[in-house]
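Ligand: NAP. Inputs:
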Amino acid sequence: MIKILVTGCSSGFGEDIAKRLLEDKNNFVIITMRNAESRDHAFKALNHDNLKVLSLDITKKQERDNVAQYVRDELNGELDILINNAGLGFYGAFELTSEQELRDHLEVNFFATAIMIQKFLPFIRKSSAKHKKIINISSMLGQVGMPLSATYSASKHALEGLVEGLHYELAPLGIDVTTICPGRHRTNFMSNISWASLEDKDNVYKVQEENLKNLMSKFTNGKEIPLSNVSKKIITIMKSKKSPSRVYVGSDAISFYLLRKLLPFNLFMGTIKNLYKRIILKRMSYENI
Ligand SMILES: NC(=O)c1ccc[n+]([C@@H]2O[C@H](COP(=O)([O-])OP(=O)(O)OC[C@H]3O[C@@H](n4cnc5c(N)ncnc54)[C@H](OP(=O)(O)O)[C@@H]3O)[C@@H](O)[C@H]2O)c1
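Predicted complex:
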């Protein structure tokens, strides 16, 4: 039996991954989400032997401890695979981001995710499974900075820096670390995005933010890309002897990766500036940014 822990399973990628993992009778899945007991979720009524739903807000120490206690008591202190999926979006001008917003955002997407790895690593080390893995959901912005999403990019860059180092550190212990970098997919991500809340007193970011919001609403209504693209990649990685360190999912993520890899850095930045100018700044003079 492969013992797997997934975070953030109330919706989106996490829910889809958990459902697909349950299709395989060889998997035992600890499905975690915030306030699991009190909310309506896809796993509530499932009478599945290979599933345990636990409440886990990854930023709460007591809840992380409870999940660890479950692994210790019920799974003989062994975990084979940790899938760090829980995360949030944060957009808006950096100048309008309060210190608390900056800290809160990095708390979820970086610190709590990093602590999850630290907390469950001893259980993964103890596992006798053929494949021991830590799989993290980052983003196509995990290696690329974008305007009005600098805080989100920073949180995912921090995560990617951490896990790149861990990749080497854990390889001698037989533990693979993989980062999944999805492009845009239709989940609750867009509707759950928080925006920088400070007042734009000089009105310098208003047009940029409005145009970005318009663009994002078009994304929400646009073509639906199956979430299963991410889940299937994860399942393939779980079964493979050697995992890749980073995987891009979606044509936008792959295009960004290729542009960043193939173009000289200044040319890459020039391309992004031009795109930003055409798409977001169209009602503003370029000198204003
Ligand atoms: N959708 C995309 O286009 C996209 C692209 C690139 C990367 N990603 C990444 O994919 C991951 C999953 O997002 P998604 O697209 O599936 O969006 P989603 O549908 O909003 O799912 C996010 C999940 O994370 C959970 N979560 C948020 N804060 C949490 C916390 N403190 N503790 C535990 N769980 C928490 C949410 O729980 P609640 O229901 O309780 O809020 C929800 O279950 C994120 O890391 C995101 O950055 C998404």
